[in-house]
Amino acid sequence: QVQLVESGGGLVQAGGSLRLSCTGSGRAFSDYAMGWFRQAPGKEREFVVGISQSGEMTHFVDFVKGRFTISRDNAKSSVYLQMNSLKPEDTAVYYCAAGFALPNSLVLTTEGQYAYWGQGTQVTVDS
Fold first, then answer.
1. Which among 53, 49, 91 is positioned nearest to 70, based on CA atoms?
2. What is the pLDDT of residues 14-61, one digit of tens each?
């Protein structure tokens, strides 16, 4: 199994940027497809973006396309979420997650596909 720890959240003005990091420990990080989800107050947790084991494939939801990017560094057991042009509606707790994917080029997009979760990091965008 893998343990995940997110960092990088905080308070930012609308239009600003944040970079979230998620570092894994335990089983080889490169064995996992990774994803970022978020949960806003009073709402269900939702998928934001996923990346395949090697990092070659990604999938974004429409509301972050062109604003967010995802990358991973398997040598550092880390995945990153660069968030630009942030909006107040991006305010949420952001979670990273790890799951097994076959074939390994697959991007996982649903909660049930992810076996391991971090504790979350708060992102607040002030208008």
1. 49
2. 999 999 999 999 878 999 999 999 999 999 999 999 999 999 999 999
pLDDT tens across 97-115, in order? 999 988 888 999 999 999 9
Whole-angstrom distance, CA of residue 33 vs CA of residue 107: 7
102-106 CB contacts, 8 Å cutoff, 24+ apart: 104/33, 104/52, 104/53, 104/54, 105/52, 105/53, 105/54, 105/56, 105/57, 106/33, 106/52, 106/57
Using CA atoms, how far apart are residues 111 and 47, in angstroms rounded to an integer? 7
CA 62 from chain centre, in angstroms, equals: 15
**CB distance 49 to 70 below 8 Å:** yes
Q: Is the dihedral of CA 45, 119, 102, 69 positive or negative?
A: positive
Using CA atoms, how far apart are residues 106 and 34, in angstroms rounded to an integer? 10
**In sequence order, what DSSP letters do the residues of 25-44 get, joined into one string?**
EES-GGGSEEEEEEE-TTS-
